[in-house]
C-alpha cells in the first residue's frame, strides 16, 4: 500500500473494529499547577463590593404638577476571584490591539507583536484587578407627575373609582467609564476612509 494512503486506511479500519484511536480531555488546574480529576470543576468564588447612596426631593409646583429630582452615587469595585485563581494579561491589551492595527495597516505581520502572557492578578493575589475603581458613578433622576384638572377628575372617578387620575413620567442618566469611552469614541472617530483618496 502507498504510504500516502495510510491515514485513509488506518482510521476507517480501527473505527470498524471499534478501537479507540484518540481521546480528548479538558482539565482544570489548581493554583499549584496540578490537574484536577477529569470532570471535576474548579471552585471559583467571585466577589465584588458596591456602595450606593442617593438624595431626592419632591416639589409640588402646582396642585396638578409634581416634580421629583434626585442624584444617586454608585461605587462598584472590580470583581475578583477569592481563591487566588484570577489571571490577567501582562501587557496592556488596549495598546496591544492599537499597535496591531497600526502594524496591520503598515503591512507588518503579527509575529512582530509581543506575545500575550498571563500572570496572577486581583485583590486576593495582592495585585491590580481587571480594571480600576471608577469613582465617577453619578446618576441624575427626574420625575414628573401631572394630575388632571378637577373637571377631568370627575370623569376619571366615574371610570376608575375614587383614586386620583395622574400621568407619570421619569428618566434617569447613568455615566460609567464604558459610556464615557463609547461617547468619546463616537465623537472623536474619523469615519473617512483614507483608501478612497
Strand proportion, as a percent range, falls in 25-35%
Question: Structural class from helices and strands?
Answer: alpha+beta
Residue-averaged pLDDT: 75
Termini, distance in Å? 60 Å
* Low-confidence segments: 170-197
Helix segment tally: 4
Strand order of the largest sheet: 2-3-7-8
Keywords for this entry:
197 residues, 4-stranded antiparallel sheet, 24% helix, two-stranded antiparallel sheet, disordered C terminus, alpha+beta, single chain
Can you give a write-up of this model?
This protein is α+β, with helices and mostly antiparallel strands. The protein has a domain at 44-81 and 132-188. The chain has four helices and eight strands. It has helices at residues 6-16, 93-105, 150-160, 177-188, and strands at residues 46-47, 50-62, 65-76, 80-81, 87-89, 118-120, 138-147, 166-174. Strands 2-3-7-8 form a four-stranded antiparallel beta sheet, with no helix packed on it. Strands 1-4 form a two-stranded antiparallel sheet. A hairpin with a 2-residue loop joins strand 2 (50-62) and strand 3. The longest helix is centred in the middle third of the chain and has 13 residues, at 93-105. The radius of gyration is 31 Å and the shape is elongated. 3% of the residues are buried.
What is this entry, summarized?
Helices cover 24% and strands 27% of the residues. The chain is an alpha+beta fold.
Strand and helix map with partners:
Elements: H1 6-16, E1 46-47, E2 50-62, E3 65-76, E4 80-81, E5 87-89, H2 93-105, E6 118-120, E7 138-147, H3 150-160, E8 166-174, H4 177-188
Antiparallel strand pairs: 1-4, 2-3, 3-7, 5-6, 7-8
Amino acid at each position: 500500500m502507498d504510504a500516502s494512503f495510510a491515514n485513509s486506511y488506518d482510521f476507517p479500519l480501527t473505527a470498524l473494529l471499534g478501537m479507540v484511536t484518540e481521546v480528548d480531555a479538558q482539565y482544570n488546574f489548581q493554583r499549584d499547577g496540578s490537574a484536577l480529576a477529569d470532570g471535576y470543576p474548579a471552585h471559583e468564588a467571585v466577589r465584588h463590593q458596591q456602595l450606593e447612596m442617593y438624595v431626592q426631593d419632591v416639589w409640588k409646583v402646582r396642585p396638578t404638577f409634581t416634580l421629583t429630582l434626585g442624584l444617586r452615587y454608585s461605587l462598584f469595585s472590580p470583581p475578583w476571584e477569592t481563591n487566588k485563581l484570577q489571571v490577567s494579561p501582562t501587557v496592556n491589551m488596549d495598546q496591544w490591539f492599537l499597535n496591531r492595527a497600526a502594524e496591520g495597516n503598515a503591512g507588518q505581520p503579527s509575529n512582530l507583536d509581543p506575545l500575550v502572557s498571563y500572570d496572577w492578578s486581583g485583590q486576593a493575589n495582592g495585585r491590580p484587578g481587571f480594571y480600576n475603581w471608577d469613582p465617577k458613578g453619578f446618576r441624575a433622576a427626574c420625575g414628573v407627575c401631572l394630575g388632571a384638572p378637577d373637571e377631568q377628575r370627575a370623569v376619571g372617578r366615574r371610570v376608575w373609582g375614587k383614586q386620583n387620575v395622574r400621568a407619570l413620567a421619569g428618566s434617569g442618566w447613568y455615566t460609567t467609564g464604558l459610556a464615557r469611552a463609547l461617547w468619546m469614541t463616537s465623537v472623536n472617530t474619523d469615519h473617512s476612509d483614507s483608501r478612497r483618496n
